[in-house]
Structures are given as structure tokens and as C-alpha cells.
TrEMBL record:
This is Rhamnulokinase. Residues 74-247 form the Carbohydrate kinase FGGY N-terminal domain. Keywords: ATP-binding, Disulfide bond, Kinase, Nucleotide-binding, Rhamnose metabolism, Transferase. It comes from Streptomyces akebiae. It comes from the Bacteria. Pfam families: FGGY_C, FGGY_N. The keyword Heme does not apply. Coiled coil: none annotated. Residues 258-445 form the Carbohydrate kinase FGGY C-terminal domain. Belongs to the FGGY kinase family. The keyword Metal-binding does not apply.
Length: 487
């Protein structure tokens, strides 16, 4: 359905949504009372290990974007979201200086301690509100600044901003993604110049900040030719951190909700009006990232379905449905691991590493894929429980319901276990939350939908949602939590 076919009441938007393992171009058809999403093109995102380390194949991603726009057909706008923290460096001519480094690359090992020697961890948190993660852009920049590439760099663009630049020839730095660099003050929603100055980071490398909804240029003539699109086609700035787009697509009916954005990572937390910058919040490793309309995404990073994805890869890609049915038959909470442990960050040998963690903690060692899968899902639900409970306490913001969005909504066992663990109802859906949030910000920029609450009401009316009520004995989850705490 095109805008012209309906007198302009419905428009089509291309949402480029790039994840750590795949990318896709989705087409959203949005109107004041309608919202549909279809997949135009999906393509793999395969990092490449070179002699220098782990790199993103960003040229392949860009080719996938162009193929997706060609498959999408006529659209009224394009928006791009992706994972956070990683970037490309450009020279004075605007040419890319090598493939972007993957956040799982080992180059940032030990860098945080060097940073903290100049800006102590407590001061860094008080200024930026960002959790400690070894791959934060700040640590990547400190690790890279002695490299030849960095010496020749005139511009730094985060991944979605880099692709936007290639599409339009115009550069900017989208704010929700910039907030994951550990160089943004969440109170002012601007650069933390004090932190940058103390660490010798030139903020002039970054393009001017953009807000979700801002125009980001028009598709270049060469892009129109490659995609078969008729111009002009605008590119609209969206919440270019995929979690910002996903949170925008949480179909909540009020403010007393927690969310868990599930996929390779689980991002569990709250939507707040102001950051929480206390020492207790830092000690709990919660992050304050920026969202739509002046909001703060107060959340904790949990390793997420990466644990299961890596195991499935090691097992030779067995049927996931059979694996989950087998896991459902395994006794609950037999063995659990800390799903936030950075020991699970790197790829490779995931089943063995989970078994080793269980052995080291004196728990039964999973012996079969079904037992390992149940260990992972119980551990994720337990991590969700801890994050939701601690976020409420630290932010003094009670909730009545947990919304799960993203790929994990398709895992009914994980959704039910999360309801059981949290002792709260779980509403699962939509699965393509990041793409829908991307589409809705574009639609709002073009006047088709109203404020954030209106966006969420439209989602609740149009998207399939499943509700899970908590079951079982809460004491079992408290005991499992205590088991992890004693380690």
C-alpha cells in the first residue's frame, strides 16, 4: 500500500536495522490508526578475524543495505539503527580508514585501568552515567589513539552514522547512540568536555549531534541509481542505537513498567525522566543511556541469547524448537551461571565454559545440549530478575509489569521463566521492536503519529502481544539468587 493509494494517510518507511549477527531492511507502513511491518531483505553480519584482530565487514553491510532498499521499493523515508559503541574513521577526503574494529576485539583489555588512573571510575560515572563495559567507545579510543589509522583520522562516525554518510554524503552524530560512547553528560545531553579533555580525546573528531527525528539528508544520486528509487528520498535520524529504537516500541500503557530488550544482549531496565548517578548505581553497574524525548534508558547489560547462540553454533545448528522442548523437560534451576559475567563475552567454546563455571561453583555440570540450554535460560531469567528488582530500588521507581521486546519474545520458555523469576506479569512483543521504533520515529517526523504515548497506543492496538503470568514458588528463585551471591 502506498501513500498515493490512500490519499496520503499511510506512508512507507524503510527501517535499516543492523544487529550483531544479521542485518535487515524492513518496510513499515504507518498511518494514524495502522502499523504494518514486512521484511524486504535480510543479510548476514559476519565479523572477520584478520591478522590485526576482529573486524566488522562494513562494506558487506552497506551492500546489504543497498540491496534491501532496492527490494523495499518506493519509500517515503529511510532510517538506520544498529548496535552501539563501534565506529569508522575517515580521512580528510571522507574515505574510510580500514574496517571498523569489533567490540569483542581484545584491544581494550587492561585499558580501563589506564583510564581510571586519570579519571577515577567514580568520577567517570558521575560525569557520564555509563556502566563499565570493556568495549565502551571511550576505552576503544584510548586503545586506538597511538595507531597509524587514528593519526590520519579527520572524522569519527558511529556505525549507523557512517552508513547514513555513505547514503547521503552528510555527517552527524545521533544522540542516543552517542550516549553509549561514555563521552556524553546525560544531564545536559551534550558532550562531557571535561572527561574528553582530561583523557586527550578530541571531540572535534565527532560530527555535530543530531536528535531522533532530525533530517539527515537525501539519498545521493548514485544510491538512487543503485537501488532503483526515484528521488528525492529523505533519510531521517531515528534512535540509531537499536535499544533506543526498541524501547520506543515498548507497548506500555503507563509509566510503571520495566523492559527487557532481548537478542544477542538482554538490556533490562526502566525508562526514566532523569539519570541515576549515585555510587550505589555505579556499584550495581547500571547505565544511563539517552532515549527519545529527553528520557533516560536506565538499564543493565546482560549477556543475553549470545550464550545460546554460541552454543547452538558449537553444536552444529540443531533444531531450536526441539532444543527448547528438551530444555523445558530439564529440572528447573539445577545449575545457574552469572549471565552478566564478562568471562562469557568472547566467542568460542561456550558449552565448555558454561560447564566449567558450573563445576567451579560446585553445581551439577550440564552434560547434554538440553541441560546446557536450560542452564542458560534459567540464568538469563535470574539475571532479568536481579536487574528489574535492583533498577526499581536504585531509581525509586516501582513497576507493575515487565515488557519483553525483541527476538526473545519468540522464546516462550524464556518469557515464562522471566515472569516466574520476577514475580510479575510479562507482556511479550513486538519481536521486531527496533525496526518498529525506527519506523515510528520516521512517521512522527512526518506528522503521522503523535507523542511517545500515542506511538505506544498504536503499537498495543496493532501488534500481537502475549501475556505470561508468574507461576511456581518464588522461594526457588531466591535460593538460586543466593547460590550465585555466595560464589
Amino acid at each position: 500500500m502506498s501513500a498515493s493509494a490512500t490519499g496520503g494517510s499511510v506512508k512507507s518507511y524503510a527501517a535499516v536495522d543492523l544487529g550483531a549477527s544479521s542485518g535487515r531492511v524492513m518496510v513499515g507502513r504507518a498511518g494514524r490508526d495502522s502499523l504494518e511491518l514486512v521484511e524486504a531483505h535480510r543479510f548476514p553480519n559476519r565479523p572477520v578475524r584478520t591478522p590485526e584482530g576482529l573486524r566488522w565487514d562494513v562494506l558487506s553491510l552497506y551492500a546489504g543495505v543497498l540491496d534491501g532498499l532496492k527490494a523495499a521499493g518506493r519509500v517515503d523515508s529511510v532510517g538506520i539503527d544498529s548496535w552501539a559503541v563501534d565506529y569508522g574513521l575517515l580521512d580528510a577526503d571522507g574515505a574510510l580508514l580500514g574496517n571498523p574494529v569489533h567490540y569483542r576485539d581484545a584491544r581494550t583489555e587492561g585499558v580501563a585501568e589506564k583510564v581510571w588512573a586519570t579519571v577515577p571510575a567514580a568520577e567517570l560515572y558521575a560525569e557520564t552515567g555509563l556502566q563499565y563495559a570493556p568495549f565502551n567507545t571511550l576505552y576503544q579510543l584510548v586503545a586506538a589513539r597511538s595507531s597509524a589509522q587514528f593519526a590520519h583520522a579527520e572524522r569519527l562516525l558511529l556505525i549507523p552514522d557512517l552508513l547514513t554518510y555513505w547514503l547521503t554524503g552528510e555527517s552527524g552524530t545521533e544522540l542516543t547512540n552517542a550516549s553509549t560512547t561514555q563521552l556524553i553528560d546525560p544531564r545536559t545531553r551534550d558532550w562531557s568536555r571535561d572527561v574528553a579533555d582530561r583523557l586527550g580525546i578530541d571531540l572535534g573528531l565527532f560530527a555535530p549531534l543530531r536528535q531522533p527525528g532530525d533530517p539527515a539528508g537525501l539519498l545521493r544520486p548514485e544510491v538512487l541509481e543503485a537501488t532503483g528509487l526515484s528521488g528525492p528520498v529523505p533519510v531521517t535520524t531515528v534512535g540509531s542505537h537499536d535499544t533506543a529504537s526498541a524501547v520506543a516500541a515498548v507497548p506500555a500503557t503507563g509509566e510503571r513498567f520495566a523492559y527487557i530488550c532481548t537478542g544477542t544482549w538482554s538490556l533490562a531496565g526502566l525508562e526514566l525522566a532523569a539519570p541515576v548517578l549515585t555510587e550505589a548505581s555505579r556499584a550495581a553497574n547500571f547505565t544511563n543511556e539517552l532515549g527519545l524525548d529527553g528520557t533516560v534508558r536506565y538499564l543493565r547489560n546482560i549477556m543475553g541469547l549470545w550464550l545460546l547462540q554460541e552454543c547452538v553454533r558449537e553444536w552444529g545448528d540443531p533444531d531450536l524448537g526441539e532444543l527448547l522442548r528438551g530444555a523445558a523437560a530439564v529440572p528447573a534451576l539445577r545449575s545457574v551461571v552469572d549471565a552478566g559475567d564478562s568471562a562469557f563475552l568472547a566467542p568460542g567454546r561456550m558449552p565448555e565454559r558454561i560447564a566449567e563455571a558450573c563445576r567451579d561453583s560446585g553445581q551439577p555440570v550440564p552434560r547434554t545440549p538440553a541441560e546446557t540450554t536450560r542452564c542458560i535460560l534459567d540464568s538469563l531469567a535470574l539475571a532479568h530478575r536481579r536487574a528489574v528488582a535492583e533498577a526499581q530500588a536504585l531509581a525509586d521507581h516501582p513497576v507493575d509489569v515487565v515488557h519483553i521486546v525483541g527476538g526473545g519474545t519468540r522464546n516462550a520458555l524464556l518469557c515464562q521463566l522471566t515472569a516466574d523469576a520476577c514475580g510479575l506479569p510479562v507482556v511479550a512483543g513486538p519481536a521486531e521492536a527496533a525496526a518498529l521504533g525506527n519506523v515510528l520515529v520516521q512517521a512522527r517526523a512526518h506528522g503521522l503519529v503523535g507523542d511517545r504515548a500515542s506511538m505506544r497506543r498504536l503499537l498495543a492496538r496493532t501488534q500481537p502481544l502475549v501475556r505470561y503470568e508468574p507461576q511456581g514458588d518464588p522461594a526457588a528463585w531466591r535460593a538460586a539468587e543466593a547460590r550465585l551471591a555466595d560464589r
